[in-house]
């Protein structure tokens, strides 16, 4: 694999700014004449150069415990790309999430590396985003931690590459339990393999034999379909046929045609899988039977099922999107938010009813594959994620009816405005950029409840 490169912002190498040469007084007239000549040539169609932005001065100050520290002469947002092979960075680590420290510009930086192991060399590249939106990347450095302190149990949220669709695996920290949120589209795939079968392969590779909780966010086939079919070699069986499932989470009602929901409910009930109903406003405290997944993890349902206020909003498809189950999942000081295909009506409802839950989000699963009919500026400016994942490969998006980039460029701009790093299946920025439209990535958010990082791994659909 060629070394990943920065995708979303220009890269500048660290180094001192070069001071301007001293100009002798007798040469002043000559300088003025040369500047005038340059302006004249520019007016005649000659190209001009963009003024150079002063370089950032940065100094590595330590690598102790499991934390990398450095100082800069400008206030920046700092993060550390790292990996265990020179030039190949498959992890991006952030500052600790105490208050808004991880989202604040500073001249002093401290970033823990959750993957550090005693005596194992780590190849790092310190990155700094200036307030003028310049991204600076240090030359590669090697650090080794003699005896890194133990980390707390980790929560992992993996967005599986299913091209166009959602399939997410939440692995809980203190309990050996797993939550499956959506399962891909039986009619989407690559190389003759459907997306749900691809999900099943990932589960097998990670020795998963049971889904403790299963949840279909809403009734669109690119989300619920893999639970019903497409997960075996014949394409006829779904994940609920192939795995023991401890609990299935449902909603009270959906907007429009309920045939798909009826089929799914019938399969769940026929297999004797317990099925509980989610309602907006419920938490792991108020509804422990459905949401107390782990004693260290807090869960709040901010949206779930049809609501009266959008009964006549848009097309049936839009209303079904707004039915999406939206969850805030919190572990210690770190929060992630996931919510299917919620559109602006669902966003507005959540902003009105649950503002206390919509602050200091570290990781955001972007709604509806990054499309512009949701992920509004108000929503993004409110939750201000430090990192975000868009579960789609834009190469597939562009080839389909959605008009991928044109439908998403405003959302990308809104995320950039709050300095969020954006990860996709085909561009794990700022760890990798699209290379050949054949390299795809699973993206995993990892946290110990204090610090956090994003890791990428090649999808089994990649060459």
Q: What is the structure about, briefly put?
A:
The chain contains 11 helices and 26 strands.
Topology (elements, then pairings):
Layout: E1 11-13, H1 28-43, E2 58-64, E3 67-83, E4 91-93, E5 106-112, E6 122-130, E7 135-137, E8 141-143, E9 155-159, E10 168-171, E11 178-181, E12 189-190, E13 193-194, H2 195-205, E14 210-211, E15 213-215, H3 221-228, H4 239-242, E16 244-245, E17 248-251, H5 259-270, E18 275-278, H6 288-291, E19 297-303, H7 316-322, E20 326-331, E21 334-338, H8 344-353, E22 363-365, H9 377-383, E23 387-390, H10 394-399, H11 409-417, E24 421-424, E25 441-447, E26 452-458
Parallel strand pairs: 1-7, 11-15, 14-16, 15-17, 17-18, 21-22, 22-23, 23-24
Antiparallel strand pairs: 2-3, 3-4, 3-5, 3-6, 4-26, 6-7, 6-8, 9-10, 9-25, 10-11, 12-13, 19-20, 20-21, 25-26
């Amino acid at each position: 694999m060629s070394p990943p490169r920065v995708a979303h912002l220009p890269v500048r190498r660290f180094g001192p700014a070069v001071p301007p040469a001293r100009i002798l007084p007798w040469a002043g007239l000559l300088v003025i004449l040369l500047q005038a000549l340059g302006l004249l040539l520019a007016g005649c169609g000659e190209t001009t150069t963009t003024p150079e932005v002063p370089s950032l001065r940065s100094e590595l100050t330590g690598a102790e415990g499991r934390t990398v520290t450095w100082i800069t002469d400008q206030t920046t947002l700092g993060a550390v790309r790292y990996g265990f092979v020179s030039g190949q960075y498959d992890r991006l680590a952030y500052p600790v999430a105490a208050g808004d420290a991880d989202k604040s510009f500073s001249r002093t930086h401290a970033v823990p590396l959750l993957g550090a192991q005693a005596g194992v060399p780590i190849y790092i590249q310190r990155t700094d985003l200036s307030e003028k939106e310049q991204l600076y990347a240090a030359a590669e450095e090697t650090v080794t931690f003699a005896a890194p302190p133990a980390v707390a149990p980790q929560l992992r949220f993996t967005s599986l590459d299913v091209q166009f669709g959602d399939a997410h695996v939440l692995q809980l920290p203190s309990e050996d339990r797993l939550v499956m949120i959506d399962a891909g589209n039986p009619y989407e795939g690559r190389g003759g393999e459907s997306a749900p079968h691809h999900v099943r392969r990932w589960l097998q590779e990670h020795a998963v034999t049971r889904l403790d909780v299963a949840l279909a966010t809403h009734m669109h086939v690119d989300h619920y379909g893999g639970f019903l079919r497409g997960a075996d070699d014949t394409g006829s069986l779904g994940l609920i046929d192939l795995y023991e499932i401890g609990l299935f989470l449902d909603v009270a009602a959906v907007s429009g045609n309920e045939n798909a929901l009826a089929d799914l409910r019938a399969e769940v009930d026929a297999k004797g899988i317990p099925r509980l109903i989610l309602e907006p406003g419920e938490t792991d405290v108020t509804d422990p039977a459905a949401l107390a997944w782990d004693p260290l993890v807090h869960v709040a349902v901010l949206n779930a099922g049809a609501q009266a206020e959008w009964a006549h909003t848009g097309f049936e498809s839009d209303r079904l999107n707004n039915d999406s189950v939206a969850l805030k999942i919190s572990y210690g000081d770190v929060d992630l938010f996931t919510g299917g295909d919620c559109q602006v009506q669902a966003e507005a409802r959540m902003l009105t009813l649950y503002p206390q839950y919509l602050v200091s989000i570290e990781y955001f699963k972007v709604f509806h594959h990054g499309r512009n009919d949701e992920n509004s500026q108000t929503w993004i400016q409110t939750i201000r994620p430090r990192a975000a994942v868009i579960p789609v490969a834009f190469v597939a998006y562009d080839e389909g009816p959605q008009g991928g980039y044109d439908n998403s460029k405003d959302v990308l701009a809104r995320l950039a405005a709050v300095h969020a790093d954006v990860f996709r299946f085909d561009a794990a920025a700022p760890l990798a950029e699209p290379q050949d439209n054949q390299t795809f990535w699973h993206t995993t958010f990892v946290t110990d409840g204090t610090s956090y990082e994003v890791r990428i791994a090649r999808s089994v659909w990649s060459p």
